Amino acid sequence: MSRSDYEPLVKKKRARFLSWTRKALAFAGRLQLINSVIASLTNFWCSAFILPQGCIDEIESLCSAFLWSGSPNISSKAKVAWVEVCKPKEESGLGVRIIQDISIVFDLKLIWWLFNNLDSLWVMWVKNTILRGESFWDVRAGAVRSWIWKKLLELRPLAQQFLHMEVHSGKSVGFWTDLWHPMGRLIEVIGERGTHKLGIMRNARIADVLVDHQWSFRNTRDRTIEPIIV
Q1: Taking the complete model, does pTM exceed 0.85, yes or no?
Q2: Residue 174: helix, strand or coil by DSSP?
Q3: Which of 23, 39, 104, 180 has the fewest beta carbons under 10 Å from its own?
């Protein structure tokens, strides 16, 4: 997303601030508007687009200027760093939500959607065009041209903390690559050698390994593998 793409959002926020500037609002009133009207507008955009850092920085700069001076055009009167303003009230902050955190929440929702809406056209397009048969967890960031997807791939370690796939029939869950086992992704737990020791291909689905509700793979006495097959 270029600056021209998100400029309408910045202009809309600046216009809102300027309209409020004429009302000579008190500090508490300005804070309330930032936490309600501006936050709602930001949430809407974050739900529809992945905002680049430049856009986030501009919006927070406008919010800071308006909060401390009453105008989005005067940015030299900040008494406290914006990061302190955004801390919870219990930590002596003002409870303003960090836009970056809001953006991350909606980005994680996109990742969740990728695994929970397999029949959607968007998911099918992503798998065919972006992932090209690879697991979301394994695709290299360097192989993806889109900056949006590079950003989503950077969130994989965080996303793994919240995602857990339900097996059901096992036809859509990767035995090695997906997050279905309590120990995490099995390919990360025991490494690539596990595919050879168990005789299970790396791209195998759980349904390929289950026969009459029983695991079907090569016998092994390897202690590093025993925990995942018990």
Answers
A1: no
A2: strand
A3: 23
Query: How many angstroms separate the CA atoms of 117 and 166, rounded?
Result: 13
Hey, what are 188's tokens?
A: 């990360």
Side-chain-side CA neighbours of 227 within 13 Å: the count stands at 9
Beta carbons within 10 angstroms of residue 171's beta carbon:
10
Query: What per-residue string of b and e applies to 196-205 under the rule 16 or more CB within 10 Å gives b?
Result: ebbebeeebb
- Average pLDDT of the chain, as a whole number: 88
DSSP 24-74: T--HHHHHHHIIIIIHHHHHHHHHHS---HHHHHHHHHHHHHHHHHSSTT-
**Which range is least confidently modeled, 49-53, 57-61, 84-88, 141-145?**
141-145
Contact criterion met (CB below 8 Å) for 164 and 115: no
Dig out the tokens for 127 from the structure.
């798998």
10 Å CB burial of residue 59 (0-12, 13-18, 19+) is buried
Backbone phi, psi, residue 207, to 5°:
-60, -25
- Say what the pLDDT of residue 230 is: 56
**Beta strands per DSSP E along the chain:** 210-211, 214-215
pLDDT above 70: residue 222: no
Rounded Cα distance between 187 and 26, Å, is: 57
In percent, how much of the chain has pLDDT > 70?
A: 94
Structure tokens at 182: 């309590």
CA–CA distance, 73 with 188 (Å, rounded to integer): 51
Residue 217: pLDDT over 90: no
For the CA atoms of 73, 78, 81, 83, what is the dihedral angle to 10 degrees?
A: -50
